[in-house]
Specification:
Elements: H1 2-30, H2 34-67, H3 83-92, H4 95-107, H5 111-115, H6 126-142, H7 149-159
Helix pairs in contact: 2-3, 6-7
Length: 165
Amino acid sequence: NNDGDNEDKDNEDKDKEKEDEDKEKKLSENFISKSTHSKQMNELKSKLGVVEKKLRFKEVTATVGGFVFSESNPKGVLLPKNSEKAVELLMSATPKVAKLFNELMSELPAVSAKLFQEKGSGDDGKKSNADKVQTEATKLMEDGKAQTYGEAIKILSSQNSELLK
């Protein structure tokens, strides 16, 4: 009788040990090793870093796009050919340098003001000479020294050739 009880007890112990081993295997399958975990975390960090860089690149490109002169942005302060360099500069800049860059760009005059600016006054003193010639020619005709405007101009050119230049 005792032998049968001991055998049953031994069988129960073996069954229990087997169950414990099975439980341990299942638990260990649920847990990953530290190295695998570290590897997975590093991969996630690198993916996150790439995503952050892409997002920052889009933001910087949009910011620089606001500074680029175009038909739709006549107040732009950068020429389109300089936009790539500006993006590179901002991507590598510290937050303080980026802030300074943005402040500088907002203070610059628009490219259109430089590109389409009138050079000179347009008369360069010639207008006043033309007025003098016309006044003198009219005076000669009124005084009867010249019958036509053409004659008056010929008389003026012989008297004062500098006036007609």
